[in-house]
Design a protein that fits this description.
8 strands; 19 helices; 2 domains; alpha/beta; Rossmann fold; elongated; three-stranded parallel β-sheet; SGNH_hydro; five-stranded parallel β-sheet; Iah1-like
Length: about 450
């Protein structure tokens, strides 16, 4: 387990939740807003309806858990509201059963602790024309209509009134703007994902704004150096045999340590020998947590001194950051990694593979822009792919949770079987694959599934 005990905010639902951590997604926005304050935990399952949720509710939210969530945001409804398939298979759940299922979900969550709060999200509206354009005839016998979404949304609002549950009516919230169908239900980064069901960045912003209205007040640490990290190491990673320890810890302390010393003796600068010793102590502590806890160190990325001056003015006159100091601290960490057999990603060299690295990868000369973050992710995935760790922690090698077949998934084109989408890799994840994975993915036959 990673401590200290921050409030846990759990997002629980179907694809609207599973996809909420994509770039610009509402879960990712919440995680950014609550950094250093609360942990946003994703429990999203594409294709699920309220029946499937009920079947595993006690596994996802066990009453005997030592730590219970402070807030659970629940979304089920869109798949339940699909029209029934003639075969009797599929995601449709009749309205009375849907309401009863949501009631049972609420009562279970409420029983977890006196401090556990709940917010329900209703179905958002759908763009039927866009669904038809994107999925073709995959919806012929199991339509999604805006009208049924409204009916199920209103039923959930009514249930929430009866039980004094905070509820966000996404149907009404999203349709406050005239261009909602295209602005709120279109993935910006590729035309392939104008599916009429899932949120764009604009749609995600509406979800976040509505959640923040619900009066809920609930951890990186900006400005920290390796000394700060050492001081709270036992709190963040307690050596407690009764809790689940992390499978992987990715550690970054370097940039602040490498700043020049301030004349006052204050400031984040840590002399190089002490920095190396601090990182060694951090690694030894994390390794002691369990035999299966893996570690990846990240070095300093490069900095652009001119951009820092332009952005911060003379704020750094007496404690400047230099690219040369970043190089020295990075190389020292790489050397420590070799000595201790720790995986180290040298961001200082990875970023400078292209001539325009500063303008492309950095926002203010120090912190990462979106393209810079992509480089970090690609380097981490490369390490995870190539590491001979058992079990593997590479995303394409790990099993999906609750991956069993279910009669409640969307019905396939044969009209007789459902399509298990628990382990489907979405097209927008293609940029994170290597060449072999990408080739295999492109050659694999794919059917558009309206989840």
């Amino acid at each position: 387990m990673v401590g200290p005990g921050r409030p846990q905010l759990v997002l629980f639902g179907s694809s609207i939740v599973q996809q909420s951590f994509k770039v610009g997604g509402w879960g990712a926005i919440l995680a950014d807003l609550y950094d250093r304050k609360a942990d946003i935990i994703l429990r999203g399952y594409s294709g699920w309806n309220s029946r499937l949720a009920l079947q595993v509710l006690h596994q996802i939210f066990p009453k005997e858990a030592a730590v219970q969530p402070s807030l659970v945001i629940v979304y089920f409804g869109g798949n339940d509201a699909m029209h029934p398939h003639p075969s009797g298979l599929g995601a449709h759940v009749p309205l009375p059963e849907y309401v009863e299922n949501m009631k049972k979900i609420y009562l279970h969550l409420k029983s977890l602790s006196e401090k556990t709060r709940i917010i329900f999200l209703t179905s958002p509206p759908v763009n039927e024309a866009m669904i038809r354009e994107h999925f073709g005839n995959a919806h012929d016998n199991q339509d999604r209509t805006n009208e049924t979404c409204h009916v199920y949304a209103e039923a959930l609002v009514e249930l929430s009134k009866q039980f004094n549950i905070k509820v966000i009516n996404l149907c009404t919230a999203i349709q406050q703007r005239d261009d909602w169908a295209t602005a709120c239900l279109t993935y910006e980064f590729t035309v392939l994902y104008r599916d009429g069901i899932h949120f764009s960045y604009e749609g995600s912003k509406i979800v976040v704004k509505e959640i923040l209205k619900a009066d809920i007040r609930v951890r990186g640490y900006g400005g920290w150096n390796s000394r700060n990290g050492l001081e709270v190491l036992n709190q963040i990673f307690p050596q407690d045999a009764d809790v689940q320890n992390p499978s992987l810890v990715i550690v970054y302390f370097c940039g602040n340590d490498a700043m020049q010393p301030h004349p006052s003796g204050l400031g984040p600068h840590v002399p190089l020998p002490e920095y190396v010793e601090n990182m060694k102590k951090i690694a030894l502590h994390i390794r002691s947590l369990s035999e299966e806890t893996r570690i990846i160190f990240l070095t300093c990325p490069p900095v652009d001194e001119a951009m820092i001056r332009q952005y911060f003015g003379n704020s750094f006159d007496k404690q400047e950051r230099t690219n040369e100091a970043c190089r020295i601290y990075s190389e020292a960490l790489v050397e420590l990694g070799k000595q201790m057999d720790i995986k180290v990603i040298n961001l200082w060299t990875a970023f400078q593979q292209r001539d325009d690295w500063a303008a492309t990868y950095l926002m203010d000369g120090i912190h990462l822009a979106s393209e810079g973050s992509k480089i970090v992710v690609k380097e981490i995935l490369k390490v995870l792919r190539e590491a001979e760790w058992e079990p593997s922690l590479y995303w394409m090698s790990m099993p999906a949770e609750f991956s069993e077949d279910s009669p409640y998934y969307s019905v396939g084109f044969d009209g007789k079987t459902t399509v298990n989408i628990s382990d489907v890799v979405s097209d927008w994840k293609m940029e994170w694959m290597d060449e072999k994975e990408l080739e295999a993915f492109i050659l694999k036959p794919r059917v558009p599934i309206p989840f």
